[in-house]
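Lecture notes, unit on protein representations.

Consider one protein chain, 411 amino acids long.
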Amino acid sequence: MSDPKTIAIADYDYPLPEERIAKYPLSQRDQSKLLVFKNGTITENTFCNIPDLLPDDTLLVLNNTKVIHARLMFQKETGSTIEIFCLEPYQTAISEAFEQREHCTWLCFVGNNKKWKGGSLTKAVNSQLSQVTGHQPQATFTLTATRREAVGNAWIIDFSWSGGISFAEVIEQAGVIPLPPYLNREAESDDNTRYQTVYANPEGSVAAPTAGLHFSDEVFNRLKSKGIKTEFLTLHVGAGTFKPVSSDTIGGHEMHTEKIVVKRTSIQNILNHYGKPLIAVGTTSVRTLESIYWFGVQLEGTPSIDAMHVSQWEPYNNPLEVDFRKSYSNVLDWMAHHDADILMGETQLIIAPGYNYHVINGMITNFHQPKSTLLLLVSALIGDNWKKCYRFALDNNFRFLSYGDSCLFIP
């Protein structure tokens, strides 16, 4: 495999006028435009027709992560506002952190940090949890945040709260949905539902897997009637997904680490589907599927590995060539040995031109920012055709980025 570290990010730039960035979603999820790149040709369609455009016997793999209300705003007595942006639990599993009922610790960005001279911040929250969870909690609860030491450009923050409710309920009530910075607007009530997929389940992301935002219950019903199967996995999207490549070449860009959670039955179903079309919904699903492959390659060389971690340059440094079926079988054997029904791991995988896909045959995705690692991932699948596709989209009034339109790429 060729070394991508010398790739110039300037080659993955394109002009994106501000007015082409979709600031709000369409009223109907499945009415977004769909650019179809198939057999080398580009056509325009509507997303609700996706069941008719997928190959027979397709398996669709989707990321079911749920976006948390990660932005917590604290008002100081001086009038200053401190924003605490929850990134991930500190040295604790996400599910465990959300179940805590008194205190937990998170890694967070802190906005206006210089104004936080010391001490704890407190926030009184009017609770509406009886509507959300069906039980009758206190009318208000108090959330306290205490800052510890810095870790890189983030901080370790201890949270404590009253009321005996879970942290999942606390953040749902006290926080705000974290819209992408390029939308340049505050979150509104509609964003609480529209910036989630209709199948979002395990909480943990600070950004939506946006390719999934186009799916509606009607689309799923039509997929089922066409005999197209679906499989769900989880990659909790981190804030680093919005981090632009600031170095001249991608060798200078550090990928963020993201958490993966995949059921053993899902891995088995994907393996059983070998030889038939597999289409990933979103770049996060792509990276998860390919990361599982590379974990299986690691196990080929060292079967005694304790946990899954796929580093950024793993595919480009690992000389082993392993068949997809062997790799996924290695992962299943490892899980059986560890008596694990769920694979929990981490990935920093970067997919760039020169990468050979081992699991997917195509993808559904949105239009991505210029000079982004997501654009590199698309180029690894369809080559320089991404330029033709994006030119077509710009010329034909497609909407861009998170709330924008979608693409189906089948090379």
